[in-house]
Amino acid sequence: MIIEAVGSGTLVGFTLGLIGGGGSILATPLLLYFVGVKDPHTAIGTSAVAVAINAYANLASHAVKGNVRWKCAALFAGAGLVGSLAGSTLGKSIDGHKLLFLFGLLMMVVAALMFRMKGQAPDAERKPDGPTCLRTSAYGFLTGGAAGFFGIGGGFLIVPALIAATGMPMINAIGSSLLAVGTFGAATAANYALSGLVDWPVALEFVGGGVIGGLFGMRLATRLSGQKQVLSRLFAALVMMVAFYVLYRSEIEIIRQ
User: Does the pLDDT value for residue 125 go beyond 60?
Assistant: First the structure.
């Protein structure tokens, strides 16, 4: 299990560093179907711990490169934290396999939207004035609620939300998103840990691999910052494939119950 956990963590950390998202959208299925964590709620809680720590580590790397818009990032993370706490409380009350099924549906919707959005010209970056700050906070609250409900860091939602709210370039949205990913993940992890739904040894092994993968992902993101459409399409395809698998496995478990 150690090798599987470290290897899975490396993949998750690499994805977080590269595109600012995809950490827990991959982490929960990996913990369940590759590492061997049995309970879906424990997998969600454990992935939240690992993703939060890895996100903060990758945030530091992106900050050194000047890729973080701190004011917008802080507003988004602060508003999203409230939504994340509410969402994670609601998520714990729902059957784990049904929650995973809804998670799979969300993955498919997001992947489809990512495919549709590519090729559209990005808006000019807006000044961080009152309307922009209000819009950023609203997007943050809604995204945080979804992240907490499904027990995910939410980076695959946060990056497009930051771009929609502020018009910032993709590389800055990736770097800025990691503050919210870490904050949402930490809030979700704390909520699940209070209920004893975290496998701490596996979480630490996951984190160890994630730090290594994150360094490589961040370096590649900086080099390929002008080719994010190609990377986003590839990631959208990966999300879609994982979504089909999650839906398949969770539906089997629901039928067995």
Answer: yes
> What does 115-167 look like in DSSP terms, one character per residue?
HHHTTSPPPPPPPS-HHHHHHHHHHHHHHHHHHHHHT---HHHHHHHHHHHH-
What are phi and psi for residue 28, nearest 5 degrees? Answer: -60, -50
| Total residue length of the chain | 257
Write down the pLDDT at residue 118.
Answer: 52
Residue for token pair 């630490």: 204
Predicted TM-score of the model (pTM): 0.74
How many whole angstroms from its chain centre is CA 183? 11
* Residue 24 near residue 185, CB atoms below 8 Å: yes
One-letter identity of residue 15: T
d(CA 226, CA 221): 9
- Contact between 137 and 86 under an 8 Å Cβ cutoff? The reply is no
Q: Which pLDDT tens digit goes with each residue over 181-206?
A: 888 888 888 888 999 999 999 999 98
End-to-end CA distance of the chain: 27
Closest CA to 17 of 44, 54, 53: 54
